[in-house]
Write a structure and sequence with these properties.
- With about 190 residues, this protein is an alpha/beta fold.
- It has 3 helices and 7 strands.
- Strand 1 and strand 2 form a beta hairpin.
- It is elongated.
- The chain starts with 15 loop residues before the first helix and ends with a helix.
- The N terminus is likely disordered.
Length: about 190
């Protein structure tokens, strides 16, 4: 519960020294209120037309030419309250109609990425996501997985239902990577 402090005098009528002290008290009270009321950090706080707190802006410094991917990333930034490119660690863009991953490497902090049931063919952009640990690309149009083999943090890659995938390239993954391959590569 947010506590409200009522002052018997207006802050503007106090001496500069006392005003400074009251600002400190009000700031501390507001900060403790922000900690206990989860969503208050989304609002600006003013006192006597003086700004005490301005919320941080969500991360917007990116361009993704694929509209479906852009919409998915925008939603993930809003949902996760992401303030920097590296702050986006998990992204689920399944069944979104994505064709191109161009620009996704801007989010270098991605650790888990789910892109199942899209129309993705080219994976070169993913080769720059060096922190990626889990990647799910089931039901896409992936042909060549070589760009993924350079990802040293990758532990799991799921490629089921990619009928055009070149199976011979699957051996290029490190032995520590758990690979779920398409049915035509299992024989």
């Amino acid at each position: 519960m947010l506590q409200i402090l009522y002052l018997s005098q207006t802050v503007s009528s106090l001496t500069a020294r006392r005003r400074s002290g009251y600002r400190l008290i009000v700031s501390v009270l507001l900060a403790s209120g922000l900690a206990s009321c989860g969503n208050l950090d989304q609002y600006g706080i003013t006192l006597n037309d003086r700004t005490l707190y301005t919320p941080r802006d969500l991360f917007e410094d990116y361009y993704l030419p694929d509209v479906a991917l852009s919409n998915c990333v925008t939603q993930a930034i809003e949902d996760g309250q992401v303030f920097a490119a590296g702050g986006l660690e998990v992204l689920n863009c399944s069944e979104a109609g994505i064709k191109s991953l161009s620009g996704l490497s801007r989010f270098s902090g991605l650790k888990r990425l789910k892109l199942t049931d899209n129309d993705i063919r080219n994976l070169v952009e993913l080769s720059k996501l060096t922190q990626l640990e889990e990647l799910r690309l089931d039901a896409n149009r992936v042909v060549d997985i070589v760009p993924l083999t350079v990802l040293s943090s990758l532990n799991l890659v799921s490629l089921d239902d990619n009928p055009a995938l070149q199976c011979h390239s699957l051996v290029r993954f490190r032995s520590e990577v758990d690979v779920i391959s398409p049915e035509h590569c299992s024989s």
